[in-house]
Amino acid sequence: MADEIKSVIKEIEKEMERAIQAMEVDFQAIRTGRASPALVERIPVEYYGAQVPLQQLATITVPEAQVIMIKPFDPTTLKTIEKAISASDVKLVPNNDGKVIRLNIPPLTEERRRDIVKLVHKRLEEAKVAIRNHRREGMEMLKALEAEERITEDEHKRGKQELENLTHRFTARADELGARKEREIMEM
Fold first, then answer.
1. In terms of Cα–Cα distance, which of 19, 15, 12, 10 is closest to 138?
2. Which of 104, 121, 144 is the last residue of a domain?
3. In which residue ranges of the chain is pLDDT below 50?
4. What is the pLDDT of residues 141-182, one digit of tens each?
5. Cα(146)–Cα(173) distance, rounded to whole angstroms?
6. Are residues 73 and 164 in the same domain?
7. Rounded CA separation 25/185 (Å)
8. If you count Cβ atoms within 10 Å of the first and of the last residue's Cβ in the chain, which end, N or C, has fewer?
9. Count of structural domains, the chain
């Protein structure tokens, strides 16, 4: 395979990997009924006029399976953090004892689990669309290389097949991650 094709494949593979990683990060923030720091660490908090992720302002721990504990580095930010959590879409009620904030994770209802699974499917589909868009970019790059006569028609076909294989591999990986997250959500 020509070096030009290898570099196209390598570049597209990196982009597809980024799409999978972005989906995994999103999945970490989706509630499963268990406490996880990922549920709250990216909540934006107003700090001296700027929006800062909560993880930069506090230590986030899970002392029990159903509790998230947030200990601010600066105790004066306690109220601001509490307000940001209340305003966020995590739908958890912060309990402020003056030193730390505790978030109790209630068990998920069947209906809420189904809603969360729909969210997982939506995010999964977004990742697959991103993967297919990267495949299309790769196809266009190969077509341009052939038009510039830097690769032959046969090399172009082999490159296209390689892109298809890459796409199938990443799509299958996304499906597997989505199925795993769905099982995690649906288990009681």
1. 12
2. 104
3. none
4. 999 999 999 999 999 999 999 999 999 999 999 999 999 999
5. 30
6. no
7. 16
8. C
9. 2
